[in-house]
């Protein structure tokens, strides 16, 4: 029996990495009987001779879409242009990542296409003030690429973001041997074509990195109206100072979070997104 990590899942077969070797294994029948579905990122016990998975170790976290487990950090890629920078969509990604207790890093791509009228520097300051690391990248910015590459070491990282923002382009720039397919932007829709069709972990700089399919929508299924505030670092910071226990920072009096917004310590658009997401969660229909 040996121990490894699933780096790819294809039609009932699982590629398991152990050291420098990859073993293509099948799942055992007991997985089906116990309704266990091995995921990319799972740490597994397997038989390297018979090429069978034997067991799946307990996960630290998992995502449903894309299906991947045991993630240490998420690099959320948003583009400055084509598609246009979208703070609301970025905040949706950040909430879902924070909800899974995954450390997020923001990468704003396509800096070489930014014109003077597009104030990306302003957004960078706001998100850094909120507590996030923000990296501005373009194909020729070696310093930024080195910083992103350094983040990968000894970690399992998921690359997330809307279609067409340059996730695969970023990974190709970091390790050209990957030859990941990249796509053009649909001019009529302003969004990218889906060029990544499956989840796969690649070895980069001593870590494992997943390029994931792009998304056009993100649901808040794992987030409640109570837990949402925990997914905004700057709200999380001021929430303990609220007058009333259980304050959700909407209509309650003597709310420290609303006061922080008035004082300029929490940026207004971030709070507006929080309220928008809160009402969306409160108004969602139960699923059975």
From TrEMBL:
Keywords linked to the UniProt accession:
Cytoplasm, GTP-binding, Hydrolase, Metal-binding, Nucleotide-binding, Ribosome biogenesis, RNA-binding, rRNA-binding, Zinc
Give the residues the record marks as binding GTP. 109-112, 161-169
EC numbers on record = 3.6.1.-
The record's annotation in InterPro entries points to: G_CP_dom, NA-bd_OB-fold, P-loop_NTPase, Ribosome_biogen_GTPase_RsgA, RsgA_GTPase_dom, RsgA_N
List GO molecular-function terms, semicolon-separated: GTP binding; GTPase activity; metal ion binding; rRNA binding
| Physiological role | One of several proteins that assist in the late maturation steps of the functional core of the 30S ribosomal subunit. Helps release RbfA from mature subunits. May play a role in the assembly of ribosomal proteins into the subunit. Circularly permuted GTPase that catalyzes slow GTP hydrolysis, GTPase activity is stimulated by the 30S ribosomal subunit.
Q: What is this protein called?
A: Small ribosomal subunit biogenesis GTPase RsgA
Gene of this entry:
rsgA
């Amino acid at each position: 029996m040996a121990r490894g990590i699933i780096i790819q899942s294809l039609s009932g077969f699982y590629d398991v990495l152990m050291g420098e070797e990859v073993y293509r294994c099948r799942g055992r029948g007991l997985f089906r009987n116990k309704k266990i579905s091995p995921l990319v990122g799972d740490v597994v016990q397997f038989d390297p001779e018979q090429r069978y998975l034997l067991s799946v170790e307990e996960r630290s976290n998992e995502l449903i879409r894309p299906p991947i487990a045991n993630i240490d950090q998420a690099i959320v890629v948003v583009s400055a242009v084509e598609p246009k920078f979208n703070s609301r969509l970025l905040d949706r990604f950040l909430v879902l990542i924070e909800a899974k207790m995954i450390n997020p890093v923001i990468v704003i791509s396509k800096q070489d296409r930014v014109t003077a009228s597009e104030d990306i520097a302003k957004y960078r300051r706001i998100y850094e003030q909120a507590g996030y690391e923000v990296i501005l990248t373009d194909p020729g910015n070696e310093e930024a690429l080195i910083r992103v590459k350094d983040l990968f070491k000894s970690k399992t990282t998921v690359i997330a973001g809307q279609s067409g923002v340059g996730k695969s382009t970023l990974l190709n720039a970091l390790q050209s041997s990957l030859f990941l397919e990249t796509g053009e932007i649909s001019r009529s829709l302003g969004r990218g074509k889906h060029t990544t069709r499956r989840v796969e972990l690649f070895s980069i700089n001593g870590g494992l990195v997943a390029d994931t399919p792009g998304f056009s929508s993100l649901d808040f299924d794992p987030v409640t109206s109570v837990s949402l505030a925990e997914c905004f670092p700057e709200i999380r910071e001021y929430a303990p100072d609220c007058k009333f226990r259980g304050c959700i920072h909407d209509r309650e009096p003597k709310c420290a979070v609303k006061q922080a917004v008035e004082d300029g310590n929490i940026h207004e658009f971030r709070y507006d997104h929080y309220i928008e997401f809160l009402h969306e969660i409160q108004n969602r229909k139960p699923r059975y």
